[in-house]
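Re-run with default settings, no changes from the original entry. Doing this only to confirm the output is reproducible before filing.
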Amino acid sequence: MKAWEAFFSACQRRPQTIGAAGWQLNRHVLALEEELGLDYASDVRGREPFFPSMQAVKSNCIQIPTTLPTLDEIIGTDSIDSSDCWKFILKKSQDSLPHGHVFTLHAELEGMKLISVMTSLLQHWQSAGVEFYTLKQLHDSLDKSTLPRHSIEWGEVDGRSGLLAVQGFGTHSG
């Protein structure tokens, strides 16, 4: 609540979204997102936007999951180094998803240490004709009446240690 109050104080409007750091959350976070009336969140790794449930808590705060790996997750895997890791992300982003891809970047990595890599990735996306959207634009384009409800589960993601919040595979109503 302190973060919500600080945002409101600084911006004179309520926040519309949030993202769980390191894709770590619990059912209390889902309940709070619902209580605060957030429009959407990006707390999980997954495939498509959905209405979340977790441990008997259902929320109408739409989850817009990260769909692509982060650069730090792929550097050092399969002989990928920091000079060409953007190629892996570019190739993965060509896999078609109904609502496109969501790429999460870290200011301290892609914005500083890996800025040249990020620049290459952005230039290649532009050359390929990729259109860029904010999460808000994606949220606003969704037909909310057709979004599925999925559970949020704990799972592993290649290249990242520990368990993360991931979109469950089962669709269920309500």
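The mean pLDDT is 92. The two ends are 27 Å apart (CA to CA).
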